[in-house]
Amino acid sequence: MKDFFFATTAVAQAEIHKMVRDPTELFSRAVQPVLWLAVFGQVFSKIRGIPTGNVSYLDFMAPGILAQSILFTAIFYGIAIIWERDLGIVHKLLVTPASRIALVLGKAVAAGLRGLVQAIVVYLVALALQIDILWNPYSILIVALAVFLGSCIFSTFSLVIACIVKTRERFMGIGQVLTMPLFFASNAIYPIELMPDWLKAIAIVNPLTYLVDALRQSMIVGGQGIYPQIFSFGVMSAVFLFLLVVASKLYPGLVR
C-alpha cells in the first residue's frame, strides 16, 4: 500500500509540475466558461423561456458551465499520454515497479487538481456576474469533491481513448466528436424534463448529468437536483472505478 501511494503521488506531482511550468492551457481553457456565462448566459436570462424553478437562468447555468469546463479540459488530457509515448516516457514508466493502476490514478489525481483551478475561475466569474453562490464551507467542500471526481472520470476516459486510438490525429478527432454530445445530452444548460425521450435515455447514462446535478445542489442558492447527492456521487465513483480498471488494463498496450 505504501508503494502504491508513493507511485501515485509521484506521477501526480510530475503532472502538476508540468502545469506549474506552463499554465497557458489552463488560462486558454478559462476563456470558454467566461464566454458562456458572460455572453450566452446573460442573453438567455432575458428570454426566460427555460423553466428553472426559483433560480434565474444564469444561476441555473453556472454549475453546468463549471461541469462543461471540467469536461472540455479533461477530455483532451489523453493527448499528453500519446506525446509521452512518442518521447519514450511511457516506456520508462512501464518498466518501473509501480502498478498500472497507480500510474493511471496518479494522472487522474493531477487532472482533479487541474479541475479545481477551473472551479476557482468559474467562481470568480460567477462572483463578478453576481450569481447567487452558496459560500458556506460545506457547500464549497462538496463542490470541490464533485469537481475533483468529475475531472478524474473524464481524464481517465480520455486515457482510455488514447490507449485505443494511439495517434494524436485520431484522438483529436474523437475528442471533438464526443465533447459536444456529452455536453448537450446532459442537464448542463436546460432541464432534463425538456428533452425528448431518446435524449433523456442518453442523459441518464451520461456521467456529466450526475456531476451537474451534484454541483447544482451545492453551488447555488435554491439549486435543486434530480437525484440525492449521495446517489450522484455513488454513480460517479462507480464510473471512475470502472474506467480506472479499464485504463490500467489498456495502458501497457499504448506502447505497441
Structural write-up:
The structure is a single chain. The chain is mainly α. The chain has helices spanning 2-21, 24-47, 57-74, 78-87, 89-94, 100-128, 137-165, 168-184, 197-204, 207-219, 229-250. It contains eleven helices and no strands. 41% of the residues are buried.
Radius of gyration: 18 Å
Number of domains: 1
Query: Helical stretch count?
Result: 11
Distance between the termini: 29 Å
The portion of residues assigned to helices is: over 70%
The general outline is: globular
Estimated structural class: mainly alpha
Summary tags:
256 residues, mainly alpha, 11 helices
Task: Summarize the helices and strands and which ones pair or pack.
Layout: H1 2-21, H2 24-47, H3 57-74, H4 78-87, H5 89-94, H6 100-128, H7 137-165, H8 168-184, H9 197-204, H10 207-219, H11 229-250
